[in-house]
Amino acid sequence: MFKRILVPLDGSETAEIVLPFVITEARLHNATVLVLRVVAPLRQSLMASPGAVENAYRGIEKLAEDYLETISAKTMAEGLEIETIVKMGKPAVQIIEVARKHECDLIAVSTHGETGGSQWRFGSVANKVVKAKISIPVIVIPTLIEINQVI
Q1: CB of 127 within 8 A of CB of 100?
Q2: What gap in Å lies between CA 107 and CA 136, rounded to an integer?
Q3: Residue 41 in contact with residue 89, Cβ under 8 Å?
Q4: pLDDT reported for residue 23
Q5: Which CATH number is 19's domain given?
Q6: What is the DSSP string of the chain?
Q7: Residue 122 confidence (pLDDT) above 50
Q8: Band of the pLDDT at 149, cuts 50, 70, 90?
Q9: Are 108 and 7 in contact (CB under 8 A)?
């Protein structure tokens, strides 16, 4: 039984394909959905002032919060309890850290559907989370299939 389901989203429609699955699982288990948006660190230029970098981070964080509000409204319309979290850092590391800290019993992610060498050469966030040594189940929904095939 799942009590807390973590859904990391990157702001793309591709990542959001996991939401119908999560909504179904959350209903079945009366679970809380935690929606996470991790913003990767900016590359700082030697020319950028500390104030400019800080302002950029604030702007990016605000965009991430606005995005999560939109997702939250859709999910709450389904009658579910939802929490939103914005973190800065490396996505896979933050996903694992949030899952542990918030005692999630499931991490649900989508993958961009890459296969073969490109996935292993570049690495993907989903791949890193799946291979992490954590005791939390991870379900990966490939975006190449219709969500109705999963449910």
Answers
A1: no
A2: 7
A3: yes
A4: 94
A5: 3.40.50.620
A6: --SEEEEEE-SSHHHHTTHHHHHHHHHHHTPEEEEEEEEPPPPPPTTS-HHHHHHHHHHHHHHHHHHHHHHHHHHHTTT--EEEEEEES-HHHHHHHHHHHTT-SEEEEEE----THHHHHH--HHHHHHHS--SS-EEEEETTS-GGGT-
A7: no
A8: low
A9: yes
Whether the per-residue pLDDT at 151 is higher than 80: the answer is no
For the chain, how many structural domains are there in total? 1
Range of the domain at 80: 4-149
> Quick one: tokens of 110?
């989508």
- 110 vs 105, residue with greater confidence: 105
Residue range 56-92, pLDDT digits in tens: 888 999 999 999 999 998 877 788 999 999 999 999 9
Q: Is 91 exposed, middle or buried (0-12, 13-18, 19+ CB in 10 A)?
A: buried
| Residue with token string 């389901």 | 5
Q: What local confidence, expressed as pLDDT, does residue 46 receive?
A: 55
- Taking the model in full, what pTM does it have? 0.82
CB atoms within 10 A of CB 43: 6
